[in-house]
Amino acid sequence: TGLKFVVPKGDSMKKNILLLVYVLIVPIIAFGVSFAIQNHFNSELREVLYQEYPDAKPNEFDSVTLKDVCENSNDSICETNRNINLLLLASVGSGGVGLILLALIWFAGKISVVNRNLMVLLFKPGLYLTLLTLIALVAIYAILAIGIIYYGESVFAHRIHVGLIFMIGLGAVSGVFAIVKNIFGIVKKAKTVVFGRAVTREQAPELWNYIDKIVDRLSAVKPEHIVVGLEPNFFVTEADVITLDGTLKGRTLYCSLSLCEILAKDEVSSIIGHELGHFIGKDTKFSEKFFPIYRGTADSINSLLSIGGDGAKYIALMPALAILSYFFDSFSVAESKLSRERELVADNVGAQVSSSRIFASALVKVHAFAACWDYLEDLATDSLKEGKCYKNTCKLFADICSSYAKPQILENIAEMHTVHPTDSHPSLGVRLQSLNVSMAEVSESALIVAPQESVLNYIPDYMELEESISYAYQSIRSHQLGLS
Description:
Blueprint: H1 12-52, H2 66-69, H3 76-114, H4 116-157, H5 162-182, E1 191-193, E2 196-198, H6 205-218, E3 225-229, E4 235-237, E5 240-243, E6 246-248, E7 252-256, H7 257-262, H8 265-276, H9 283-305, H10 312-315, H11 318-353, H12 356-368, H13 370-385, H14 393-404, H15 428-435, H16 439-446, H17 462-480
Parallel strand pairs: 1-5, 3-7
Antiparallel strand pairs: 2-3, 4-7, 5-6
Helix pairs in contact: 1-3, 1-4, 1-11, 3-4, 3-11, 4-5, 4-11, 6-8, 8-11, 8-12, 9-11, 11-12, 12-15, 12-16, 13-14
């Protein structure tokens, strides 16, 4: 998910123990310090009583506490004792609330793994409940931290670090403000940025008709926009897509001009069929309503986790950030499992458009030549630094792929994963196994990167469109590099 988790990935037992430490350390310390202060007060009270009543029997006052003598008293020591009692109650209560919240998150994550409908139902309200609870916990933990420092230092050290108290209070205020500020905006759609342009039905009727035939064959939901761009990727998403022409809302199909240079028409059809497979039947509502929201929320939570700060300011926020990380971590397990299952189902849909072998060949090509795009970006960067600009980056990509189209490029790619802006994918090896196609069966076709029939023929003035996108890409890249 890209989140900067407060609770580290790794050994489950260690992770859970550390999470409990984050959540309970402040209540436990507050309870311990408050209990020690009360024992100190009670001990002093008994000493005074034994001094005032020297004839008292041994152990006569050993059970006397401030509570016994403060029932009807407003002395300062009694007022302090009542405050200590409130700290004890708050430490037990906040620790209990933290544990209950963790238990609810754990339960929600577990049942979401086995029931994707529950995952959709629980994620959004569960996040709101967690955030509202965290607001209360941040405030209570700050009060506990300030209370134990103020009373603990005044009783045992006879001094008070006002600066430390101020930093903890400041951290609590900033934390509560940040959560309140973001609570209604944290659940939002993901945004995807692409170097591409939208192609309307009027501009490219043959391309739209080609897509329509695949949609009708699969009884899928039609895309509302088609965007063509440079990045070697295909996807259909309900997330907002930011293009060179502006932001598109609704269902957008993104087609890679670079990959269309090396993929045969049937291979492109199978890949588009795979993407449209996410908008068939029950899977439609997950693709439309859950995954774009899930990914967008991940970005928002990541921003919220960055407010912690350092040192004393972090004390009040530490448990809240840990719980928020745990919430998303719990649902990410269910989401990853569901994403992998959905991808394999969509792979089967893609195979229906052409054949398992053709789709497998397309998958191998995309995985095998992905690194060629990274190499192209390095070449483009070096050229820009020399004051030069490539006119046609997609053609350059195809040329690079052609030079690397040798059997060696297919070695050790079975564990590779394709990059997708909103969903996660299984490894290539898992996907080929699900298609019942071996690498050996498609290795020859996967190395053919000069297709006889190309989807690019469906786009009028394709070269001019690609050149304009290439120019825009290199202009933005030049600006990022600080070049004129």
